[in-house]
Specification:
A hairpin with a 5-residue loop joins strand 3 and strand 4. About 60% of the residues lie in helices and about 10% in strands. It is elongated and about 65 Å long. It has a four-stranded mixed sheet with strand order 1-2-4-3, with helices on both faces. It has helices at about 5-15, 15-50, 85-90, 95-110, 110-125, 130-150, 155-170, 185, and strands at about 50-55, 60-65, 70-75, 80-85.
């Protein structure tokens, strides 16, 4: 008769309360990692299902897909930037180019790899609320650093165009005089652009 998973964990972590806590930690860490891997796999399949290849830039495939809510970068080995199918209709050419520069920047900076490393660290500390806060701040700072990279040396006009593209992406449409349910935090947090 083979030992149960719980018995194996108890053997690894010892008995008693310490063993039970160690086993709970291991199950939580492994569960979080497996869940993220499965979610990411589904996400990638959804993005690529029926996608149209638009371009190749700096070793990154640029695709249009109905599954993309806004511009986004994904893939470590096969690198992609995905745009919504109606992106060119909602954004002008300058906004499209700046959005593409932003998403390709994530690949160039190694942000996608860094996100997986951060997820492993988060999984190891899944029980700690400070780790969850740090992960969210890490992602927000990553976005701000990439924004700064895209805007470095650009004119005030380009900065305005970029800001408009960010607002459009956050709202999913054109900017209007209507009141939206988005706060400034939803848009970019403490955006320096």
């Amino acid at each position: 008769m083979e030992p149960s998973f719980g018995a194996v964990l108890a053997g690894v972590f010892g008995g008693g309360l310490g063993g039970a806590l160690g086993a709970a930690w291991a199950v939580g860490a492994l569960g979080l990692l497996v869940w993220h891997l499965l979610q990411h796999r589904r996400f990638c399949r959804r993005m690529l299902d029926g996608a149209d290849r638009l371009d190749d830039r700096d070793g990154v495939r640029v695709i249009a897909t109905a599954a993309a809510p806004g511009p986004l970068a994904f893939g470590l080995v096969r690198r992609y930037v995905a745009f919504p199918r109606d992106f060119a209709d909602r954004y002008d050419a300058d906004e499209c180019e700046l959005a593409l520069a932003h998403e390709i920047g994530h690949h160039q900076r190694g942000d996608l790899f860094a996100n997986w490393v951060a997820l492993v660290v988060l999984a190891l500390h899944w029980f700690n609320p400070v780790a969850w806060h740090a992960f969210r701040r890490f992602r927000a700072d990553q976005e701000l650093a990439n924004d700064a990279r895209v805007l470095a040396g650009r004119s005030a006009v380009d900065r305005h165009i970029y800001a408009c593209a960010i607002v459009k992406a956050a709202h999913g449409g054109a900017v209007s005089a209507a009141c939206h349910l988005h706060t400034i935090t939803d848009l970019k947090g403490d955006c320096a652009c």
